[in-house]
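hiii so um. not sure if this is the right channel but i have a protein structure encoded as tokens and i wanna go backwards to a sequence. like what aa goes where. can anyone help
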């Protein structure tokens, strides 16, 4: 550096400058030269090297390199150039000022650590984008894991910065932090629990973004929109947002409707409460009338016993389910009679629809039971219904007329 200082000092001396002015001017010019060199190197990287890498990545068939060399990653890489050049060349400029040189190098190291952390953050964000595009990783809750890696990296970076500022080894600081581990665990309790829960949710494939889950304890009933380190966001069907800590999904019970979608059928499980007093044997004329109306195809086998109208109605429901194009033919279909109650005789219809979409499912279910309610009187059956005030009023008026 003295070879460079001498020509500058001789030139300034020829201008009649004093030795003090010459010294500070020479040092200032050299510092400006270092700053200019670092700026030119960063500019060269951004304008020449980065575009060349991006063009090269676009020519490949793989998609991951397009994300790896995106603008955000290139800007983060360019930030590493100035502190590296400053750290290498400042020693030649401030060679006779050890205190200033030590301070300048500490600033360069801190700048470099911050730039590395920003590069790591951009790299993890890029990994998250790549994983969302990958078919096998798209529905994995990996965002929380990336956030935990960021948190650990920033903690390590903060320890390194503190060690640089106080001039002590980072391992000494870590040893000191070990004594306050309980305090740190209390501070980062949610983050630690969230990381463990995120790993369990991902490893056991318990939850994915886009799943429809129900968790009555937290009032959640909707689709998972985001899984992070500390929260799981669920958009309910009323468009409200419910946030649940990830560890609550592991420690408590929740219902995931993904299996219903993957099976390709949504269950119908609804009962008609038949008035038990209307269940009786069918006469030959009634059977013939049902046959003419297309409500009875083959008379049920009863081993010579009279045919019960409820049995004919159950067979009719089975035929309707088999003929309905909206009912899934490969999944269970059943019509069963449950334990009689004080509310009537439950006749349960159990089957699965071909669609899992909510609106279409409800429409199909309504059409099925609309038809069953309308055709029920044709079999001589009646639904059980508690008497209302209007029924009691009509009965009273009838009694008064008769009297």
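sure thing!! here u go:
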């Amino acid at each position: 550096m003295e070879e460079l200082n001498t020509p500058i000092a001789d030139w300034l001396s020829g201008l009649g400058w004093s030795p003090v002015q010459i010294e500070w001017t020479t040092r200032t010019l050299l510092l400006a030269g270092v700053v200019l060199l670092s700026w030119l190197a960063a500019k060269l990287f951004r304008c020449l090297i980065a575009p060349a890498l991006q063009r090269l990545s676009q020519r490949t068939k793989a998609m991951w390199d397009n994300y790896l060399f995106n603008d955000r990653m290139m800007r983060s890489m360019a930030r590493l150039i100035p502190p590296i050049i400053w750290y290498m060349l400042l020693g030649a400029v401030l060679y006779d000022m050890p205190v200033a040189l030590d301070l300048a190098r500490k600033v360069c190291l801190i700048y470099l650590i911050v730039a590395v952390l920003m590069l790591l953050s951009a790299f993890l964000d890029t990994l998250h984008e790549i994983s969302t595009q990958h078919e096998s990783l798209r529905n994995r809750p990996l965002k929380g894991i990336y956030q935990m890696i960021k948190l650990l990296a920033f903690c390590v970076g903060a320890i390194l910065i503190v060690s640089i500022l106080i001039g002590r080894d980072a391992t000494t600081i870590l040893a000191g932090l070990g004594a306050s581990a309980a305090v740190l665990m209390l501070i980062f309790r949610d983050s630690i629990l969230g990381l463990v829960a995120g790993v369990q949710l991902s490893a056991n494939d318990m939850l994915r973004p886009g799943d429809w889950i129900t968790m009555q304890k937290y009032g959640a009933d909707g689709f998972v929109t985001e899984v992070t380190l500390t929260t799981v966001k669920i958009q309910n069907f009323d468009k409200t947002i419910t946030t649940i800590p990830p560890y609550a999904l592991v420690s408590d019970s929740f219902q995931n409707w993904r299996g219903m979608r993957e099976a390709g059928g949504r269950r119908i499980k609804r009962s008609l409460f038949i008035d038990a007093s209307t269940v009786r044997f069918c006469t030959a004329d009634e059977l013939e009338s049902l046959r003419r109306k297309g409500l009875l195809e083959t008379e049920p086998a009863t081993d010579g016993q009279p045919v019960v109208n409820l049995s004919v109605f159950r067979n009719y429901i089975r035929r309707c389910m088999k003929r309905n194009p909206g009912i899934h033919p490969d999944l269970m279909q059943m019509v069963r009679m449950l334990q009689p109650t004080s509310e009537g005789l439950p006749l349960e219809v159990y089957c699965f629809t071909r669609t899992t979409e909510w609106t279409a499912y409800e429409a199909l279910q309504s059409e099925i039971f609309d038809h069953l309610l309308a055709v029920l009187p044709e079999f001589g059956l009646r639904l059980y219904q508690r008497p209302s005030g209007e029924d009691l009023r009509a009965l009273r008026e009838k009694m008064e007329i008769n009297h």
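oh and DSSP finds 16 helices and eight strands in the chain.
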